[in-house]
Amino acid sequence: MTADTAQRSKRPLFRNRDFTLLWGGAAFTTLGAQVTILVYPLLVLWAGGTASSAGLVTGAALLPYLLVQLPAGAIADRYDRRRLMIISDAGCLVATTSVMLAVFLDRVWLPHLMLAAFVQGSLAIFYDLAERSAVRNLVEEHQVPAALSQNEARHRAMMMLGQPLGGFLLSVTRWVPFLFTALAHLASLLMLLAIRKKFQGERAAKSESGLWADMAEGVAWLWRQTFLRNVMILVAISNLVFEGMSLALMVVIRDSGGSPTTIGVVVAIGGVGGLLGAMTSIWWRRRISLPALIVAGLAAWAACVPPLALITNPVLLGVVFAACGYIGGVFNVAGGVYMVGVAPDHILSRTISVAMLIGAGASFLGAAGFGFALDTAGVGRTVLVMTVLMGCLALVALILPSVRAAARTREGGRLSAEDAAALD
User: Fold this and answer.
1) Alpha-carbon distance 393 to 395, whole Å?
2) Which tens digit of pLDDT belongs to each residue from 135-166?
3) What is the pLDDT at residue 136?
4) pTM for this prediction
5) For residue 342, how many other CB atoms are within 10 A of its CB?
6) d(Cα 162, Cα 36) in Å, to the nearest integer?
7) Any residues with CB less than 8 A from the CB of 201 and at least 6 apart, and which?
8) Number of domains into which the chain is organized
9) What is the extent of the structural domain holding 85?
10) 263 in the Ramachandran plot: left (φ > 0), alpha (ψ -120 to 50) or beta?
11) What CATH number did the domain enclosing 241 receive?
């Protein structure tokens, strides 16, 4: 190791120009996405639409997790990840601008909102997969866990800021949230254009197999990881519940006379919990195994669902969502470190895409299904169903042999002193 290389390896992440630009660009993109992901259903609800219509718009934004994940992962491994992120930002800018003009001209049409939400959701997947996979190529190897933790903290912070900002901007003028998101994507584009380093290794650009073969390789690799596969299935079902919780929150606040800004504040409090969870995930991993973390987290999530049918106070609802966010922040960092640690770089984007497909591919069903349930059965009965479903997930995680067995592996057990030192 040369003196220059040794000096770079000791350089803190904030001194890494390319990683800082990547981090900042992704922050703008995430902020814009968080603004519009809340505004889409609120735009429908506060215009006199039903929970079912709001669920359709939300479902359109989530449907790409089912349809786009696999090809996006293969494309992110095959082609230049930086260029892919630039194209994604540009496409999102066009989509949000079209909605802004439609709202400004008072020509809002539900199918247009659904199409724009679907396009944004699709391009966000390409961006996210490329960004996640690029990190290990822009930082030193020992800094990867810390970089992933910072990325998760960034995501949670943007959730904390973006969704209340979206609610506030919608309350002021309906088209302004979409203008804000377009400008955020423009800022991200400029930062991406300034990055010098390559976003992937040379072998990723030399793939000679077909796109279908690339996708199949990623599916086959993850499917052989029994622990990962089973955990992602549990996460998939829990995500259905979270979509229902988000819609239930909107209905509860609306029916109690609240405003879009109130919903944004509640979600922001949840973002604070997620940020704290991301920051303390490594602390938990030093003390308990990954399987124990999963079982305890699912059980705690089950306890967070019933209050939605019992309380309307925004502060108390914020506490509930903060608890949910905290657990999610812990999960995401722990899972991300595990994934990057076990997956080879040349299939990393595909591996992440398969995991996200399993984990979030059916989320649109949660938005559409629970939106219909809220209209027909009401908040109380819908919340009861969600509580039972989440409780069953914790029980299944507790008895699954593959989950229990992972506690005895190096990656799934408690962090060793050596691993913990590397993360500090």
Assistant:
1) 5
2) 777 777 777 777 777 877 787 778 777 777 88
3) 74
4) 0.66
5) 17
6) 9
7) 137, 345, 346
8) 1
9) 16-198+208-423
10) alpha
11) 1.20.1250.20
